[in-house]
Amino acid sequence: MKTRVLLLTSITILLAFALCTQAAIKYVTYNDEQPNGSYTKKLIPYYLWACGCTPTSGSMTLAYWDNYGPIGGGSWGKYTSWGRLIRYYIDEPTLESYEDGDGDNFVWGHYASAGLARTMTCVDLAWHMDTDAPGGSTDRDDQHTGINSYTNSIGYGSSWATRYYKFWPWDPAVYKKIRTEIDNGYPCLCSIPGHSVCCWGYDSGADTIFTYDTWNEYRHDWDEDEFENLNRVHPQNGTPDKDVDLHTPDGGETWGDGTQHTIQWYQYGSAIDNVDLFYSTNGGLTWTNIVTYYTSSAGWNSYTWTVPSGLNSTRMRVKIDGWTGWNDLYSEDATQTNFTVN
Prior knowledge:
This protein is α+β, with helices and mostly antiparallel strands. The chain is built from six helices and 22 strands.
């Protein structure tokens, strides 16, 4: 009898521990995929190292607010208030043509799954954060100010980011504040010694923080005591229903010159009434107009493009800008990887 009681007690303790451990796991989002018409996207997009770990992690943190998330009432959907945070995507030669303030070229970064998209926002943040090329180091004092400078430059105001950093090695406040941000639904840009990451979850039972760390597209768990710097990122000055998502082309296609193809996009809300379409033959470095002030409305839209005769490039991209009237640019999106015209 005594053995049986001990066994039952042990099982009860183990079950209680398992339930407590599970209850201690929190996420900014459930990191699965949500539907968007006929295709899906991650809630927090992952980007691989480009220009530096801090601008890359900052881009992922901002991308949450230009992607999927909770929209209230227990439902999930597309944030449509900040459609310019992630402006468009560029390829390796284009990214490495940009320079820091000292005239040194930024670096693409050669990590796992190197074909994944890099965003122009990484370059923009690197400029605003005064990130050094080619190594990619960013002073912690320039991280939150760089985010605020960038969001202000695209019309969203200069009060998105605030900072908290560890005052002494045993200070527990950083990881506790990271947990608070996650509990309240905010991913955040954080630093461990020598590196920056995008934080979006935690396990208080295991004393770990869930991150994307810029080195590959997988979740990485870091010991919470490693964190020494927190940049809170809270969106400001957005207006709902002002966003467009480019659907086709999205990379990998092969189109013939002189042939007709459909450019397709989805518009959220009715505030945008027209779009400009562009193409690039050099991976997003420069853009040539396809059509200006083309009517667009809520839901699916398309434009039939006759590819110019004689066009020949393996670094093709298409870009869309969503406007209200002539003066108010509310959204940008583009092909994520190169396609071919020949």
